[in-house]
């Protein structure tokens, strides 16, 4: 299985954020994306996840027979938002995601096992909104476990986590890679995942205004 980005560019409104971004991942490989604030790390992840159009370039996911996969079938996307309903219980939220993303061949952990995997046994009955910020983020990580998708696309996945939970995330991500999955994560902080490569995004060059254009 492979994920390939070629000559990708992204904008925010009229502003070109980055250009000529490319990388390739094989099964079992991970990539961190770094760069200064506002350079477009989150925009790149949203383009990869199919949530925003690319200004240029392509992103492709291929299965083991080099057949293209749809983003909807191949990825988990975890952004800054945890994508959980505060009024629903932890178990109800995870059960929704398990059903919504199951597809024709459901795979992944049961809801109780996913909660246990993020070391929060016994809170499945609580409304999501009752949890601390760190607990909420860990339940958001449990969403990656209730259905199986080969590519995890993660935006600041360790936000709100303490050091112990950082290591827990590292263990979950490392296990996903060991089982042939792939991870792409935008981050400002080091992630406790061994062997991942890094792509640092630089701001796109802004063409200098010509003298004639300055008078227009």
State the gist of this model.
The chain is of the alpha/beta class.
Structural class, by secondary structure, is: alpha/beta
Strand proportion, as a percent range, falls in 25-35%
Instruction: Estimate the helix proportion, in percent.
Output: 25-40%
Tally of separate domains: 1
Biggest beta sheet attributes: 5 strands, parallel
Q: What integer value in Å does the Rg equal? A: 19 Å
CATH topology: Rossmann fold
CATH superfamily: P-loop containing nucleotide triphosphate hydrolases
Verbal overview:
With about 220 residues, the chain is an alpha/beta fold. It has one domain: P-loop containing nucleotide triphosphate hydrolases (Rossmann fold, 3-Layer(aba) Sandwich). Helices cover about 30% and strands about 25% of the residues. It is built from seven helices and nine strands; from the N terminus they run βββαββαβαααβαββα. It has helices at about 40-50, 70-75, 90-100, 110-115, 135-145, 165-180, 210-215, and strands at about 1-10, 15-25, 30-35, 55-60, 70, 75-80, 150-155, 180-185, 195-200. The strands form two sheets. The chain has a five-stranded parallel β-sheet, sandwiched between helices. Strands 2-1-4-5 form a four-stranded antiparallel β-sheet. Helix 3 (about 90-100) packs parallel to helix 5 (about 135-145) and helix 4 (about 110-115) crosses helix 5 (about 135-145). The model is unreliable at about 205-215 (pLDDT under 50).
């Amino acid at each position: 299985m492979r994920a390939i980005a070629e000559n990708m560019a992204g904008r925010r409104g009229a502003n070109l954020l980055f250009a000529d971004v490319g990388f390739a991942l094989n099964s079992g490989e991970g990539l961190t994306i770094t760069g200064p604030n506002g350079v477009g790390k989150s925009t790149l992840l949203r383009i990869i996840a199919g949530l925003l159009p690319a200004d240029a370039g392509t992103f492709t996911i291929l299965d083991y027979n080099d057949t293209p996969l749809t983003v909807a079938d191949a990825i988990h996307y975890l952004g800054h938002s945890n994508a959980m309903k505060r009024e629903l219980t932890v178990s109800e939220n995870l059960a929704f995601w398990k059903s919504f993303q199951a597809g024709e061949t459901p795979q992944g952990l049961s809801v109780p096992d996913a909660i246990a995997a993020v070391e929060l046994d016994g809170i499945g009955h609580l409304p999501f909104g009752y949890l601390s910020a760190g607990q909420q983020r860990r339940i958001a990580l449990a969403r990656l476990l209730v259905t199986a998708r080969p590519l995890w696309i993660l935006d600041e996945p360790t936000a709100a986590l303490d050091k112990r939970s950082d290591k827990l995330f590292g263990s979950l991500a490392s296990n996903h890679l060991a089982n042939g999955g792939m991870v792409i994560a935008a981050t400002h902080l080091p992630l406790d995942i061994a062997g991942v490569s890094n792509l640092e995004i630089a701001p796109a060059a802004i063409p200098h205004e010509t003298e004639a254009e300055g008078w227009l």
